[in-house]
Amino acid sequence: MRGRVERRKYMTTIINKIKNMAAGKDENLWVKCEKCAALIFKKNFIENYKVCDKCDHHHKLNAWERLEITVNKNSFKEMFNDIKSGDPLDFGQEYLDKLEKDIKKTRLNDAILTGEAKIGGFDLLIGIMDFTFRGGSMGSVVGEKIVRLMELGAKTKKPVIIFSASGGARMQEGMLSLMQMTRTSAAVNKLRENNVLYICVMTDPTTAGVAASFASLGDIILAEPKAIIGFSGARVIEQTIRQKLPPGFQSSEFYLKHGFIDEVISRKQIKPMLIKLLEYFAK
User: Fold this and answer.
1) Contact 125, 153 (CB under 8 A)
2) In 3D, which of 175, 162, 263 has the Cα closest to residue 214?
3) What is the C-alpha separation between 19 and 269, in angstroms, rounded?
4) Eight-class DSSP state of 216
5) In this predicted structure, which of 29-38, 100-109, 239-248, 265-274 has the lowest mean pLDDT?
């Protein structure tokens, strides 16, 4: 009788383990693809840059993960990390607590990581947006860090590369966040006046105020496969114009077809492509 009870407990444990694996809950071994729901061995998932080997879905990377697979090892030096967001519109302690929570979670002072680094044999300035910090929203700090990065690029003649990932302007900063669209666009123009290369890599999602400003002004614009790119949501646009939008609207492939971006490129090929572009423009 005792052996039967122990066997039942053992089988229950095994069945629960299998159920957790199927649900993608066994974080130590497996990852569940957000797109096709396939179970991926976590080690393979990480080695494949968080791209599903079944459906090629590109899962989101945080800023530090993106940095690791993009720049040369130990070449990154963070800059402008002393600026922090406040509460200019007096949303209250709850909003400030959320900011502090995101700071601890992401190890960033706001929704973008900025600094200098090397890619291949080239010195450059890099900015990487992090969607896990308030949805990658652009407020005063994000705008200020991008402007400083580009002004430094114009001064030192170092190329500037920015990886965008954002839901748009930060609503808790109102007009102050909207002003960052013009500030960052003016900073891009300063790069052009000084003949400094600016490359933007759009990742999922790049929308609203970010898509309508510095992200769409690169000399070269790359994008990851099936990244959502656009200003307003598809449903809002359909309700406004009272028309059905074409299939794949606001995907990176759609924008490539219509000439808005220069190339859709898989995550593993982004660094080699950046090196080729830097080599070409260096000549």
Assistant:
1) yes
2) 162
3) 36
4) G
5) 239-248
Full-model pTM: 0.86
Looking at every residue in the chain, the average pLDDT score rounds to 89
From its phi and psi, is residue 74 left (phi > 0), alpha (psi between -120 and 50) or beta?
A: left
Alpha-carbon gap, residue 119 to 130, rounded angstroms: 20
pLDDT tens per residue, range 152-196: 999 999 999 999 999 989 999 999 999 999 999 999 999 999 999
Task: Locate the domains of the chain by residue range.
Answer: 60-282
In the block, tokens 């291949």 appear at 120
Structural tokens at position 238: 């359909």
Rounded Cα–Cα distance for residues 78 and 127 (Å): 10
Contact criterion met (CB below 8 Å) for 129 and 164: yes
Residues in the chain: 283
What gap in Å lies between CA 122 and CA 139, rounded to an integer? 30
Residues 60-282: name the CATH superfamily.
2-enoyl-CoA Hydratase; Chain A, domain 1 (3.90.226.10)
How many angstroms separate the Cα of 47 from the Cα of each of 161, 272, 280?
24, 17, 29
Owner of token pair 């080699």: 272
CA distance 216 to 200: 8
Distance between CA atoms of residues 65 and 130, nearest Å? 10
**Residue 135 half-sphere exposure toward CB, CA atoms < 13 A:** 14
Q: Which residues contact 19 (CB under 8 A, 6 or more apart)?
A: none
